[in-house]
Specification:
Blueprint lengths: L20 E3 L39 H7 L3 E2 L2 E2 L3 E7 L3 E8 L2 E9 L9 E10 L4 E5 L6 E4 L18 H4 L5 E8 L8 E3 L4 E2 L3 E5 L4 E3 L5 H11 L7 E5 L8 H24 L4 E4 L4 H9 L4 E6 L2 H14 L7 E4 L8 H4 L2 H8 L3 E3 L5 E6 L3 E7 L9 H23 L3 E6 L6 H15 L6 E6 L5 E5 L6 H4 L20
Parallel strand pairs: 4-17, 14-15, 17-18, 21-22
Antiparallel strand pairs: 1-18, 2-3, 4-5, 5-6, 7-8, 7-10, 7-16, 8-9, 10-11, 12-13, 13-15, 19-20, 20-21, 22-24, 23-24
Helix pairs in contact: 9-10
């Protein structure tokens, strides 16, 4: 049975060191859907803060530009809204993202074959199911992965019949195809695949063989125009490009280098696919810490603290190569000289315990009850000890607004995906219901994972979906009870 990490696991203490943190020196690299259908975050850089577009032949940043990108400092220490804590153990790596002192995101990566999201494979088609419009492919994992008709790419000239081709006309058993994993295997389900490949970089996402051409909607209009002017001169023939939010303020030279790296990476993948025998791994995504830093790390982070020396060296070298101005924000946490483990010092330990509870208390005395099932997640909002002051309608309205903010936080922290049904306390006035939905959508807009929210139903329920990529926090840090098989009850066998 796979070993699950326990909250607060620590590494054996290395030799003591004199200083609390050992800073690295400053010398020293997604998701293709990032730009689609997402609301803008509240905290964004002003257009006035963004530098003018440089000439396309620029290859490096000068000292002044590097200094501008370092971010704010106070008393010689970096200042930022977020802090990332990385704890590595013998079997897993855990990453905690804190906003101030509050834990907002948590990632767990086990050192096994289930963390394959983003990997590219030369897969072998095992069988095609026309009735399901899907095919099962062997990627070398314990379970076959599934490829749906909507994710299949094909050449129109290869299809003899007219009209939309069926999946059995495109794929056949024992055929080798290049696919990318879009969802990790969860429980009894295998991984989900797509043939629309996307290769993420620091600033760009390369979509080979596509005409996709997009820029993150989270960027200001002036910055989008500047980046589009640069990309019009460097867009590769036969490939699509998506510009990420991290490209805000990036120079033409940085974008060109990122694109060149992605094109060389795609060439290597193509070469491996021509010389390998299916099933074969063509490209593996880097360590979870490197992936999260590639997606998230920017000047709004006051630091990345890592308690493993080897991982620190890897991450620091990576940051020094893609963002040298931020390399001094990557710090090593010496567990030999520190009295507390990393997660305990930053109170991650206790916040994780609370995030595993079924009930969540609200500041005013109300509560949430979160129940997860195989089909969906149900969240019940209660007023609890919140008795209000003036009227029932106002009490319920204020309680629901608190609940909306906390639900968005819990969904992000617990990484709950799929169908979600929220039972807010009933309100009589329509303007209060509209106000609730506005606050709820604004709170969800801070979540980088795609969500879709519907209006309050006739039964007073709010239905929504949140994209599911992997297992949630509870599944990552627990195993089903061997006695009741995870049901939470024991059958009275004396009644049989």
């Amino acid at each position: 049975m796979r070993h699950k990490p326990r909250i607060g696991d620590t590494l054996p203490a290395p030799e003591p060191r004199s200083s609390r943190f050992s800073r690295g020196s400053s010398s020293g690299q997604a998701d293709g859907e990032e730009y689609k259908g997402r609301r803008r975050r509240r905290a964004r850089r002003s257009p006035a803060d963004l530098p003018d577009a440089p000439a396309l032949d620029e290859t490096a940043l000068d000292d002044e530009a590097v200094e501008q990108r370092r971010g704010r400092e106070r008393h010689g220490r970096p200042v930022g809204r977020y802090l990332m804590c990385v704890h590595a153990s013998a079997t897993s790596t855990q990453i905690a993202v804190l906003e101030g002192r509050m834990l907002i995101e948590h990632y767990v990566a086990h050192d096994d074959d289930t963390q394959i999201h983003g990997n590219l494979y030369l897969a072998k088609v095992q069988n095609v199911l026309p009735g399901m419009e899907a095919a099962f492919l062997d990627i070398g994992a314990a379970k076959n992965a599934v490829l749906y008709r909507s994710d299949v790419q094909y050449d129109v000239e290869d299809i003899e019949e007219s009209g939309p081709p069926r999946i059995e006309q495109i794929l056949r058993p024992r055929q080798a195809v290049v696919c990318q994993v879009t969802k990790n295997p969860i429980g009894h389900k295998g991984a989900r695949l797509t043939q629309e490949i996307s290769i993420p970089g620091r600033f760009l996402v390369l979509v080979p063989g596509s005409s996709t051409y997009g820029i993150s909607k989270r960027l200001f209009d002036d910055e989008r125009k500047r980046l589009r002017a640069i990309l019009d001169q460097m867009k590769p023939h036969g490939h699509g490009i998506i510009v990420r939010t991290a490209a805000a303020g990036a120079t033409a030279g940085e974008l060109q280098r990122d694109l060149g790296h992605l094109l060389r990476q795609w060439e290597r993948i193509g070469e491996r696919s021509r010389t390998s025998t299916a099933p074969a791994l063509l490209h593996r995504e880097p360590n979870v810490a490197v992936r999260v830093i590639r997606e998230e790390f920017n000047p709004s982070y006051r630091g990345v603290v890592i308690d493993d020396r080897d991982l620190f060296e890897e991450v620091h070298g990576y940051v020094a190569s893609i963002a040298p101005e931020l390399s001094d924000r990557v710090e090593y946490y010496d567990t030999g000289s520190e009295p507390l483990p990393l997660f305990e010092r930053h109170h991650v330990h206790e916040q994780l315990h609370k995030a595993l509870d079924r009930k969540v208390w609200l500041p005013s005395g109300g509560s949430l009850v979160i129940e997860r099932t195989e089909a969906l997640t149900v969240i019940d909002v209660n007023t609890g000890r919140n008795v209000g002051r003036s009227s029932l309608e106002e009490t319920v309205w204020r309680n629901n607004l608190e609940a909306a903010e906390e639900i968005a936080h819990q969904l992000r922290l617990r990484d709950i995906g799929g169908i979600i049904v929220v039972d807010f306390v009933d309100m009589e006035q329509k303007r209060n219901r509209d106000d609730l939905m506005r606050v709820f959508r604004d709170a969800l807009a801070r979540d980088k994972t795609r969500t879709q929210v519907f209006e309050v139903s006739e039964l007073g329920l709010v239905q929504m979906t949140r994209k599911r990529i992997g297992e949630g926090l509870l599944e990552s840090l627990s195993t089903p009870c061997p006695t009741c098989d995870g049901r939470g009850i024991l059958i009275d066998e004396t009644l049989e």
